[in-house]
Amino acid sequence: MSDAKAATLNTRIRADISERILSGAWPPGHRIPFEHELMVQYGCSRMTVNKALAPLAESGLLVRRKRAGTFVSRPRIHSVVLDIPDIAAEVSGRGETYGYDLLSRKVRQATRREVEELDLSAPGPIVVLRCLHRAGGRPFALEERLINLESVPEAQAVDFARTAPGSWLLGHVPWTEAEHRISAANVERATAQVLGIEATAACLVLQRRTWRGTDKITHVRLIFPGDAYDLVARFAPSPGAPPRPTA
Amino acid sequence: MSDAKAATLNTRIRADISERILSGAWPPGHRIPFEHELMVQYGCSRMTVNKALAPLAESGLLVRRKRAGTFVSRPRIHSVVLDIPDIAAEVSGRGETYGYDLLSRKVRQATRREVEELDLSAPGPIVVLRCLHRAGGRPFALEERLINLESVPEAQAVDFARTAPGSWLLGHVPWTEAEHRISAANVERATAQVLGIEATAACLVLQRRTWRGTDKITHVRLIFPGDAYDLVARFAPSPGAPPRPTA
DNA sequence: CGGTTCGTTATGTCTATACAATATCGCGAC
DNA sequence: GTCGCGATATTGTATAGACATAACGAACCG
Description:
Two copies of one chain form a homodimer. Chain A contains seven helices and eleven strands. Chain A is an alpha+beta fold. Chain A folds into two domains: 9-72, Arc Repressor Mutant, subunit A (Orthogonal Bundle); 87-225, Chorismate lyase-like (Chorismate lyase). The first copy, chain A, has a six-stranded antiparallel sheet with strand order 5-6-7-10-9-8. In chain A, helix 2 packs across helix 3 (46-58). The first copy, chain A, is elongated and about 65 Å long. Chains A and B meet through helix 3, strand 4, strand 8, strand 9 and strand 11 of A and helix 1, helix 3, strand 4, strand 8 and strand 9 of B. Chain A binds a DNA duplex through helix 3.
């Protein structure tokens, strides 16, 4: 990184320390200098050192123990940030024209399986949608969407013929929690036909459930032909901006 | 949230604000109170307010502009944290016994394809490994691993008959950058046979490249039978525990 | 009218200090 | 020896004040 930039003290301390850790100079388990020592070393106040170290600890690079000191953490779990983009954005980002078709729309009680997918406690009214996303005329992804009408009654009045449910929900219903599940699967013959692929072709399946507090909002299953889409995640533990969900 | 307590002021301010945003009370684009106002409201110093808001801005929930104020940002991308566990840990975490077999090990010059996979600038000596990870006796994942001997010459002396290359590398070679790619694919007949699955069965393919600075370290392709493994990511933008990418 | 300057305002960073919480260490009692 | 407990070192959180930085807007001048 050519950070020829605004090196504030805070930034410099963080950079120095994570550089030493990532280069291996300070191996996992190593005790790094005390706040008091760093404060002398950098000629700054302890608050500044503390403000620099706190995010590194929060991010898991360091472990801090009172009375003991600050240590380089050992668990090297591969934890990565994955951006799951809006499909329309993804498609037009590739320079292809985005297309959307509503295949079916039903309002009914949730089946036992749908109750489970939506994490409901009991069967209730839901909207069931099947939509096809296209890229440059060719099928790009099949969307199977459930919306819980008990949490989102407004959805009953929307026909989703032109607006993809994902976009509508994003604009209308805030969420507080989401769970993603990524898997590979063979799909049913009918699904393969809609997607224009061989029945044996592997598909990438992305499922997402979202909640608002304890209210169940929606469940979506996106099915991508295996050759259409790769999820890519890049992780560069730069000392600068820790990409973080929140807080 | 029934987090019973340990509410420091810092925590409370963050919790209040993200709650208001996530509940929709403060919609995207809304200007939240100035630091000075919050400082009066909570009866604390501006430093404390600043320390509470800074991480929210860093995480993307807020956008701060000098002279203008602090605004709720429009969240568009679903950004999730994915933990890609060590396979041994994953298997024993399920209560199954973990097994490991080295299928083949070669040291040779990188082919054109391997040069690309490792992001090399020119063909050089590499170690090529094929390993099978088993869970409770049954195949769990096939690992195809390339190690760049120019960056990691020690790897030439290791035979990997008992230690999985992932574990060895984690303990011996620090890395600074990684790229992950997740896809679904049909595999070759020989691969299917090793995994004990039908040749048409969909597989989840996880590829990872790692660098240390500009040095290329390794490339690994993990192939999971589609029914063996789901990657799960949970994202709860609660002010509590910040899941985060890290080394 | 158009461009420049300068003041105002909000955030960004840092300091010096204070007190609280807590884990570890070492000492003394048994 | 070992157990318990208190002293103490280290981090956690907060404060009030200071100066830096950036951007908007209004006043000023050509």
